[in-house]
TrEMBL record:
The keyword Hydrolase applies. Keywords: Hydrolase. It comes from Aphanothece hegewaldii CCALA 016. GO terms for molecular function: hydrolase activity. PANTHER family: METALLO-HYDROLASE/OXIDOREDUCTASE SUPERFAMILY PROTEIN, METALLO-HYDROLASE_OXIDOREDUCTASE SUPERFAMILY PROTEIN. The keyword Hydrolase applies. This is Zn-dependent hydrolase.
Length: 258
């Protein structure tokens, strides 16, 4: 398994001989609802869009997961697997092969990768977006992704999983509390799934953030404090923090269930 980080929640996953582009923000600004004065993200380093993408995987319909300027530039014939909300975004853009996955639904891509949608992040009072479990059918290697740190208890039934991509620090707003749930929730999901490797997402990369909202955001926890939590709880999970644009080749050992 090989992983390349592209800032925020954007990843290139190379698994089972397939190249999967996850929640890509690769070009332009990141602005929610055209409210640049409230929040605006800018990449400090422009990188080329990866070539030979086999699949686009979208967990949410919000701009930091289904980034319209990026999706406009990608080949609209690339197959897409998406949450119902994200599927609407790519369908409106004219993508030709869109598979919508609801919670606990699975899809086999090209007889190679099993993609299972699990409950992920709440967006508003009624909508819950997707997390995903990816499994290579040849090797059995598996990966779990949830970008805001919301992990449903049904994940316990899917242990063990080799790799987790999820936040490991908390991002908080006054009155609202944690909008990104890291330390405690990441520890809990590691206790459930016993991964060999965990990689942080959501709060990293070569990005400059501006806008009124930034002055109210605060963080809690660090990678080092999370490593200490793992050690305290006798977990051997390795924390890897790839730099933006850096490909990480994971040397994973076969896991034994039970």
């Amino acid at each position: 398994m090989q992983l390349t980080y592209f800032d925020s929640n954007s990843w290139l996953i190379e698994l089972g001989g397939k190249r999967i582009l996850l929640d890509p923000w690769l070009v332009g600004k990141l602005i929610f609802g055209n409210l640049g004065w409230l929040f605006r993200g800018s990449k400090t380093t422009e990188r080329p869009i990866p070539e030979n993408i086999d699949l686009i995987l979208l967990s949410q319909g919000l701009e930091d997961h289904a980034h319209t300027p990026t999706l406009k530039q990608l080949d609209h014939n690339i197959p897409v697997v998406a949450s119902p909300n994200a599927a609407k975004v790519v369908q409106e853009l004219g993508y030709t092969q869109v598979t919508t996955l609801g919670h606990h639904e699975s899809y086999i891509f090209d007889n190679t990768i099993e993609i299972k949608a699990v409950p992920g992040s709440p967006v508003g009072p009624t909508l819950v977006e997707n997390g995903y479990i990816l499994k290579a059918l040849d090797s059995g290697l598996s990966l779990y992704y949830e970008p805001h740190g919301y992990h449903g208890a049904t994940l316990k039934e899917m242990s063990p999983i080799d790799v987790i991509i999820t936040p490991i620090i908390d991002l908080k707003l006054p009155l609202l509390g944690s909008v990104i749930k890291g330390q405690k929730n990441a520890l809990e999901v590691c206790q459930w799934l016993r991964p060999q490797v965990i990689l942080p997402t959501a709060a990293g990369g070569d990005i400059n953030f501006e806008g009124l909202l930034i002055s109210f955001l605060s963080t809690e926890g660090t990678s080092d404090t999370f490593r200490h939590l793992l050690q305290e709880n006798k977990l051997s999970t390795q924390v890897l923090e790839p730099k933006s644009g850096e490909k990480v080749v994971l040397d994973l050992k076969p896991l034994v269930c039970g």
